[in-house]
Design goal:
It contains four helices and 26 strands. It has 336 residues and is mainly beta. The two termini are 16 Å apart.
Length: 336
Amino acid sequence: MIALILALSYFFTYALAQDGYASQNGGTKGGSGGTTTTVSAAAAFQTASDTAKTVYLKGPISLSSQATVGNNTSIIGVGTTGVINGGGLKIIGKSNVIVRNLVINKVVGNDAITVQKAKNVWIDHNEFYSDTTHGFDYYDGQVDITHACDFITVSYNYFHDHYKCSLIGHDPSNSAEDTGKFHITYHHNRWNNIHTRTPAMRFAHVHSYNNLFDNVVSQGIHSRSLAQVLIEGNVFSNTSEPGKFFEKPMRHLNRLMTMEIVSTYGFVIPDDSPANPTGDFEPDGFANLGAANDFGTGKNNITAVGTFTSVPYAYTLTPLANVRSVVTAGAGIGKI
């Protein structure tokens, strides 16, 4: 039976990886055609080589740091056992990587998954959590994508109980490296009890569709430093008290007190770990609202409408009325 489950997981890893921006640039097949290994101990969790491989994790395991992930790699949790405590993954300067069906939690001082200078990465059906009893810099991001990454899909993940969830672009001064990169899709993810960065982005082209946002505390989708985001078919609920924004010279003062669903205003709020504790200023970003979204009682602060209105891949929107049930049933582990 275990062999059958692994074989089916292997098949679906290949068959379903053609998804969002990860389907572009030749597609993302991970370790298809390579070796297959099942591991159940941290010492055996070897993912750094560049030879094609699929590593099945039958945990839980505990890591004290991030494990390096090589080219042409699939890392897949077995059932609901693929749990990594205390450490995460780093995908740096690599391509053709699939991460599926893992739980990564409580990575102190680092990201659950760090992606830098990487292409064709698919992060799918994982769960990420920590807690919000520590400050916003005690843990870092859950999935942070920086340094000119490209062709990435983040889908059907469950992000919860965390401050700074997902950042695209590490610095507003990094335009020379990042401009023209960061083509990233977020779809059918579930976000619950997140303070900021669902995601926050710089210099990117991000397609966000059919995601479910519950209890976003301070700020949801934040497009800044000339980033462009296309937002379609998302559902937001149980947000903070919506506010009425002042004119731009005073708008940042009001942002200290109110929650924004979608913002393109470049001010980095105090809850988003700015260099200045009272907030940082960056250039504004851009947003386009495509197919209808349900913003609940929240308010948007869209200062600029962009030119990013279509994507080069095919996709099918879940009807807005079904997003909550589809995402709740489908996002996270044990569902592939």
